[in-house]
Amino acid sequence: MATSASPVPAAAPGAAAPDFEALSVESATVVVQPSLWQRVRRNGSVRLGGAVLLLLVAIALAAPWLGTVDPSLFDPASRDLLPGKSGEITTLEGETIEHTFRMGSDSFGRDIYSRVLYGTRVSLLVGLFTAVVAITFGTLLGLMAGYLRWLDGILMRVMDGLMSIPAILIAIALVAMWRGSLLTVVIAIAIPEIPRVTRMVRSLVLTIREEPYVEAAISLGTPTWKIMLRHILPNTVAPLIVQGTFICASGILVEAILSFLGVGLPPDIPTWGNVMAEGRSQFNEFPHNIFFPGIFLAVTVLAVNILGDGLRDTLDPKMAKRV
Amino acid sequence: MFAFLARRLAATIPVLLVVAVLVFLMLRLTPGDPAAVLAGDAASPEQIAQIREGLGLDKSIPEQFGIWFGRMLHGDLGKSYYYKTEVTTLVGQRLEPTLSLTLITIIVAVLVAVPLGVLAAWRFGGWLDRTLMGFSVMGFSVPVFVLAYLLIWGISLKLGWLPVQGYKRIADGLGPWFIHLLLPAITLSVVYIALIARVTRAAVLETLGEDYIRTARAKGLPESKVLMRHALANAAVPIATVIGIGIALLIGGVVVTESVYAIPGLGRLTVDAVLARDFPTIQGVILFFSVIYVVINLLVDLSYVFFDPRIRY
Fold first, then answer.
1. Residue A240 domain-assigned?
2. A98 within domain boundaries
3. Which of A168, A276, A302 lies nearest to residue B138, judging by beta carbons?
4. Which residues contact B33 (CB under 8 A, 6 or more apart)?
5. At residue A87, what are phi and psi to the nearest 5 degrees?
6. Are residues B251 and A261, on separate chains, in Cβ contact within 8 Å?
7. Does B24 touch chain A (CB under 8 A)?
8. ipTM
9. What's the pTM?
């Protein structure tokens, strides 16, 4: 009672009243520009794609607690079950437990629901790593090509050659050489993406290095590496984020294609591509073995692409106009 | 014109050379010993050494490249480890299905995508435009093989309209040939349609803002003529470019589509060769696809002169 009766809260509205008027006058004359982050956050595509992607990340992280079993578990008694059917499955300890196969089971008696949910982890990781690897090497090469004139010609010819070989063929050939593992698959998918990043960074460097502030830095005797890090690299961040999102989407797609063709990750790793590859021979009777992972794959790639579209519109308006 | 042709051809040669080096290195940096693969499990070390010598694998890498490159220029891509025949023969045998599939796909895609793109630009922001843009993002996101199975399930298994799988040669009659290729071509064309329609829309949208469009409309030309003769004709260069660049996408799609539909073409050959670690065949097919891609884009560049008489180089 003592606090509410104190004069301070009663005085506050009265004291604020003149301030209010001053504020309204100000807001009528000053147009407050939303910050870049605000514009990104308010973009509908970013929100939609980001929300779906966050949901998928949550599924990937929470996979063990979403009614799944170990994705490598199988039981001969539970082969080829239709979605929603109950059956038994043998745990690693050898005991048999009752389990509901929400998305059915494959011809080994493995739970497709568990394999699809755990597959989310693999796909998201492959997408993320592919983007990071391609952006890192592409940026490094692009900075070098844009800044070191003697290297430019030869490097860009190699990139032209690399771009002339269809991406999936490079990935397939490299994985065939190295045998599939998470690392080799990521590198094999990232390599054909590098030339596009290199080209983009190089052209940005060539534009930015003509800017007065870079000329000023050069005339002040700033070492080249410092100019690259402090003046050129920050200007490439926005386009690189946009590019990275699209590389992530295509990385997820290519990994699924490689696994589906049987040349990607080893079949015991639960990936969407592998689940679909296993479902191929029985497609006529059990189309859901392909459709469930297929839906997850399509929705994931769609979400990343939509996010990328939104980021491009807000972060990189120049590029948005071109497409 | 001839000077341009010569210059453009000269610019293509280094690209092809780099492609050759890259494809060669892909094989030579293999951890395994090709001679041991070729000799089989029962071979003695002497036999393997003999095969290695026969393949020229005992020479230095640059020397090997020289020999390989020289043979390649003579049309000799080496012998398949798995099929035990010349790679060029193998490619020749598998050419017809792939060529048929890609040609039908390109024709279907261009016939669908260009009008859609023009209409979307014409009614910018309308329902067709929004649907098309939504469809094109979907087209980029739905994997080819998921789409393939969806179509097989719906059109072949449920409705029974088209055959599920397989390929019929042109020699067996045009009807069966076309029927067997229709579903694969539709599958393959979706991503290509998405790409071409998007670029057509953007290019036509840009030309529709030009002064000559206003003039054409002011002098009372029918809208169809304004769109086709003035807007689309002036947007032809970027559309031709994306059709050329999209060939890379198409080649990737062919590898997947042929596997799903059991079409014995070059894409299927690629996958089979990779599964069998048949390196000369992998090398040959990649080289073949890449040369085709480079040559098509060279032709696209040359077509600019035809589409836009202002371009004289």
1. yes
2. no
3. A302
4. B48, B52, B57
5. -160, -170
6. no
7. no
8. 0.84
9. 0.83
